Amino acid sequence: MNNDEILSVQTYLRNKFQLDNITLKRGALADEVEVLIGDEFIGTLMRDDEEGEISYNFSMAILDFDLTEQEQQEPSA
Fold this sequence. Notes:
The protein has 2 helices and 4 strands; from the N terminus they run αββββα. The model has no long low-confidence stretch (mean pLDDT about 90). The protein is about 30% helix and about 40% strand. It is an alpha+beta fold and about 80 residues long.
């Protein structure tokens, strides 16, 4: 992905999720971009060019202990 694509997808994600602190930065792999919210890594983004149709695939893993931590932080009703 080139810098213009990264900025374009970053703007799209910020608007879609209504979060101004979503940031995309180049990852360790040449064809991968890291997605962060603030300083927290949340997933990866890859560009797919199949038969001239370009798409961007966002992948986010949610670990079971992340769900447990979230439940402990929520106030009980």
